[in-house]
Amino acid sequence: xxxxxxxxxxxxxxxxxxxxxxxxxxxxxxxxxxxxxxxxxxxxxxxxxxxxxxxxxxxxxxxxxxxxxxxxxxxxxxxxxxxxxxxxxxxxxxxxxxxxxxxxxxxxxxxxxxxxxxxxxxxxxxxxxxxxxxxxxxxxxxxxxxxxxxxxxxxxxxxxxxxxxxxxxxxxxxxxxxxxxxxxxxxxxxxxxxxxxxxxxxxxxxxxxxxxxxxxxxxxxxxxxxxxxxxxxxxxxxxxxxxxxxxxxxxxxxxxxxxxxxxxxxxxxxxxxxxxxxxxxxxxxxxxxxxxxxxxxxxxxxxxxxxxxxxxxxxxxxxx
Length: 320
Prior knowledge:
32% helix; 7-stranded mixed beta sheet; globular; alpha/beta; 10 helices; single chain
């Protein structure tokens, strides 16, 4: 146990976790990942009590950490319930979108900066990142910090996800009803709920154009950002961008930067290559003659984009 875990309620037997909403896709994935962590115990509630506030509150009182895999409104209610316990309140990882830019919450992307992992370790309340913002922020934040991309630069983010990111209804449409299209753009009203999160943690001052899409594959994700090099201050090179990304993630175990992408990958990239992993790969594809680059993030939307990120935060918070 780390020094930060001395306040755990179950020191003798190891920390305990309650996944509120464990029957959903994200909850099931988190439970499966946590099964390999030694003394950590996942507490469950019976199916007939999952919507019983008194039963949930009683379980919250007994555990060290609660993971919320709930719709936004239900997550807000669950947080209020946990806070009502005062000093006995558990720590919280919220996988919904409800608290990602809320005051008092720590953003659960430990690779965001050199201090973010320590912030997660110390936090009582951690908001798990969204899958799309994870890729976009991972690409943009180091470049904004390095002064390569100005905060007010016009940014376009294009992304495609496997259909599991849409939850039970979308999974049913693809796998059971067979009624969903092979490929679909959505969010074309340009009010996607992930945009405020993306702006806040990439340090963007101008609202980016974000165009998400879904394909007929279960999981996997690509997030791409095209840039004109000559439109950026100082007209940076492809190598400048690769160096900034590689330096930012030089000590990361989960995030890697491919510096040979343009030559090594033949101008193609497979969205499903990181499925069933918690890794995040970043690429810089470019054409020096045209002075253009495309930044690409690849991840499993159920891994580093959801459940894998939650487990990473749980590990930090409980000193595992």
